[in-house]
Each structure stands twice: as C-alpha cells, then as structure tokens.
C-alpha cells in the first residue's frame, strides 16, 4: 500500500471538503504520514480510545467520507467521539494505544513500527485539541 495521509483540522465539513484537491493547504494545520490504511486506523483508534466495539465505531462512521475524487483522493472526518478521546488522552495513554494499534496491525500482517505509531497518535492527538476545529484525514 502506498498512500499519502494528512491529518488536518478545519472549521467544518464544507471547509474540509474544499481541501480534497491536493490536500490541506497552508491555512490548515496538518501532519503528514504515509503507507497505512487511514480509514481502518481511524476505526481502530476509535475503538481503542473510546471502548466502543469496532463494529459500533464502523456503524457510527458510515457517513464519514466528506469528499471523494475520481483520482482516489478522499477527505474523511474523524468521529466526534474519537476527536474528544484523542484530545483528552495523555501522552502515556496515546503511547499505550499506539502500541496496541501496532500490535493489531502486526497480527494482521501489516506491521507498523511502534515508535512511529506513537509519533502518529501523538501528532494527531495534538491536532484534535485545536479548539473549535474538527479533525479530518486527507488520503491520496
């Protein structure tokens, strides 16, 4: 899998949708990573951080795709529950979740370095704390 993943914050779905062509612009705080299934990660993080079952997180995210381009680019909204959980989590909690996430991915044959997983969740957690902004993910 080869992809570019940018987690970013925007005022609302309309502002996030406007970022689908080329990804978030300089006016949107963002962090960039790559080469993991971001849609799946959002669901797994939701389950790990909120205690909801994976199936409940999946059902709640049915309308999470904000924009979808013909070239494969997408903007996906993080659930409100996930953003709240990310914003409340301490660095130690995020590290624990990152290690559990990395272990789950490794068990599925998609290893991710636990240190990188911790970096990703820490950075996304910082974005989630941005007041009066929603958390989104641009995937290309």
Describe this structure in words.
It is a single chain. The chain is of the alpha+beta class and 140 residues long. It has helices spanning 13-17, 38-50, 54-60, 80-88, 91-107, 114-128; strands at 4-10, 30-34, 65-68, 74-77, 134-139. Helix content is 47%, strand content 19%. It has a five-stranded antiparallel β-sheet with strand order 2-1-5-4-3. A hairpin with a 5-residue loop joins strand 3 and strand 4. Helix 2 packs across helix 4. The longest helix has 17 residues, at 91-107. The protein is globular. The mean pLDDT is 93.
The value of Rg in angstroms is 14 Å
Percentage of residues assigned to helices: 40-55%
Number-wise, the strands total: 5
Strand-residue proportion = 15-25%
Mind sketching the topology for me?
Elements: E1 4-10, H1 13-17, E2 30-34, H2 38-50, H3 54-60, E3 65-68, E4 74-77, H4 80-88, H5 91-107, H6 114-128, E5 134-139
Antiparallel strand pairs: 1-2, 1-5, 3-4, 4-5
Q: What is this structure, in a nutshell?
A:
It contains 6 helices and 5 strands, in the order βαβααββαααβ. With 140 residues, the chain is of the alpha+beta class.
List keywords for this structure.
5 strands; alpha+beta; 140 residues; five-stranded antiparallel beta sheet; 19% strand
